[in-house]
Amino acid sequence: MTYHPQPIDTSEVVIDTEHLKLTELLAKNTHEIWAKQRLADGWQYGSQRDDTLKQHPGLIPYEDLPDSEKEYDRLTALGVIKTLLALGYRLEGQRVIPSQPDPEEEAKVVTLLKDLKKSGEINISSLLNIHRETIKIKPHTPIIYQVLGEAILQLGEPLPSLEKITTQDYWTLATLGEASLILQQWSQARDWYQQAIKVGQRRYGDLSSTRRNAKILLESLEGNSDRLTDWFKWPRLAVFSGHMIDLPDRPQPRFPAHLETQIYQAIRERLSQLDVGIGYASAACGSDILFLEAILERKGEIHLVLPYSASQFIPDCVDIIPDSNWKERFNRLLDRATEVNVANDGYIDRDWYFPHNERYKLH
Q1: Where are the alpha helices (DSSP H) in the chain?
Q2: Bridge-based pairing state of the strands 236-239 and 301-306
Q3: pLDDT, tens digit (0-9, with 9 covering 90-100), for 110-151
Q4: CA distance 38 to 49
Q5: Using an 8 Å Cβ cutoff, are 246 and 278 in contact?
Q6: What's the half-sphere exposure (Cβ side, CA atoms, 13 Å) at 218?
Q7: What pLDDT, in 10s, does the model give residues 216-233?
């Protein structure tokens, strides 16, 4: 038998810091559930796995597991989160909001629209306000799109032009884009979406949700979502890890100091080729710092991922070359970073943190 696994496509899902925090919580809970079931089945701890004696080395607290075992649980948990987001669910605080509409909530929105029409006070603003609030709760509710579109058409009032709107509210702009899309006013939809993207910089969760909604609508109206390539343009993201600059007494040269300018130019060219505008790196002296400086030169945003506190990281990986300015350059990057993630609260051995830090960045 030939088996080809086909998991749900999560390639367009955007993961933020809150999702990563939830990943660790779910990873620990996954281990707890597994361990509880094993113990209930008569297993006990053993330094080596023995199926006959029912002994397993993993029957220990999650915190004491080797990182390779934690990683397995993390990947499982992250996969669940990505799948929920890909299916249209949204995670807000302690709630998971489903993509399928609640019939009662759906009926309330429809009734509200009808009441507005009967009152004679219906206008574009009232329709957009209803839709804006509704989409935050139920982003995939076809009947609401349908009723909204029909109400706009029956109203006979054209959507306002971009020049007449001065709002900087992301959801208003995104909703105007969706209203234009429903009415198949393609150029207006593009303009509204692109304005929303300018206002919503760094709100990647909201941007992803808006793009996903537009994709659903386009596929319903045209059978494809080709227009999204032109409508939703935001910079690519790159995660970087490279060599530190060589210590003066390094026996085998790897990144000698005289190659700094050449390496920087190569990084700049590659970033330009890939159109990268968002960068993640650890900011050790050498290629990490060069990468982050090149991102800033491109007017992009940088995110630092440190294995432990900056006060410990600087003497370990930054200020290690005599008579150099790497520490000053690191501090400038720290000041200009959009975000600084510290992977561990305490100090960890360098031989262990390098592979751990790379896995952390990829998550």
Answers
A1: 17-40, 67-86, 103-119, 124-137, 142-155, 170-182, 186-199, 204-222, 228-231, 260-274, 287-297, 310-313, 326-336, 350-362
A2: unpaired
A3: 566 566 556 555 455 555 555 555 554 444 444 555 555 555
A4: 13
A5: no
A6: 18
A7: 778 777 778 888 888 887
Domains of the chain in sequence order = 17-85 (1.10.490.160), 103-231 (no CATH), 236-362 (3.40.50.450)
Q: Look at residue 149 and give its three-state secondary structure.
A: helix
Chain centre distance of CA 157: 37
Residue among 101, 89, 68 at smallest CA distance from 10: 89
Residue with tokens 């053993």: 46
Q: HSE (CB half, 13 Å, CA atoms) of 269?
A: 6
- DSSP bridge partners of 45: 56
Q: How many CB atoms lie within 10 A of CB 246?
A: 18
With pLDDT > 70 as the criterion, what percentage of the chain qualifies?
72
Residues 6+ apart with CB under 8 A from 16: 204, 205
